[in-house]
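Example record

Each entry pairs one chain with its bound ligand, protoporphyrin IX containing FE.
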Amino acid sequence: MRIVKAIYGWFDRRYNITPLIEKNVTKKRVPKTLGWAACFGGLSLLIFLVQVFTGVLLLMYYKPDPANAWDSVTFIKSNVSMGWLVQRIHTVSANLMIVMVLMHMARIAYYKVYRTPRELHWVSGVVLLMLTLILAFTGYLLPWTQLSYWGAKVGTEIPGAIPVIGEDIVRWVRRGEAISGETLGFFFALHIWIIPATISAFMAMHFAMIRRTGISRPL
Ligand code: HEM
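Structure tokens for the complex follow.
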């Protein structure tokens, strides 16, 4: 602990970090009436960060091709030191993140704090909800189990209900007629890079807008 303090002090003397942290985090003033339900937005962010951290660890062993995907996940769970724990945290947190985002949304809806001037907080939030669901859906295919395969098959059939262009969308999402190695590669790219990067951009937008309006004061 002393060494961490010494390193922090060294940087603080040069870059004056403490006032910045006090102003934006530890001494930031928020409305007195907020209550416990206001924690779910922050918890969604925290769990997203846990997902990024554990996801990077899993990436060190995961192999995104049909011949090796299942074996690599089994290897992580049974041979890699603490691999089972990292894999469990990643899976459980994926579900938790969805629950937290929905609870956050429920608070916003209950207190009606999506009204002027916060309409765009809500709009960017809906995009964040969609992206969170896509993140979980694409991750579900990666272990390449029977459950993942059938989950992806049923899930990718949904856009087929759209008139005229539905079938084309299904083929585009699957990268072909059926769930295959192509689908796995595409979902892998979406899961580890495209969706997390897009979520980060929308979160930055969400937070910038919240900073501008401040958090609302429910009665
Ligand atoms: C990954 C997803 C999300 C994260 C990390 C996130 C994070 C946050 C945080 C930290 C706040 C400020 C504290 C609070 O009021 O809880 C906030 C406020 C807000 N969020 Fe989100 N949010 C997410 C998704 C959503 C969703 C799905 C919606 C609605 C569809 C939404 C709408 C709003 C609104 C309207 C506010 C302003 C609330 C107020 O001023 O009291 N957010 N968000």
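The chain has a mean pLDDT of 96.
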